[in-house]
Give the backbone structure.
Amino acid sequence: MSTQELLHEIEALPKQEQVWLLEKLSALTEAEIPGSFRQGMKEAERGELLDLDESLKELDRP
């Protein structure tokens, strides 16, 4: 699962579950969070993620 897919899954959760998840995530130590996830979150913060559906639509255009 990509970082963007994960973010979409989190956004789809009810607010109460989002708060619970963020509380749990904030309690994790850096060593418990995979480097690839941390990198993906930095990319998301910088707005460097692509919407895969939109990108594929552009590839299909003549």
In short: The helical segments are 3-12, 15-26, 35-45, 52-60. The two ends are 30 Å apart (CA to CA). The mean pLDDT is 85.
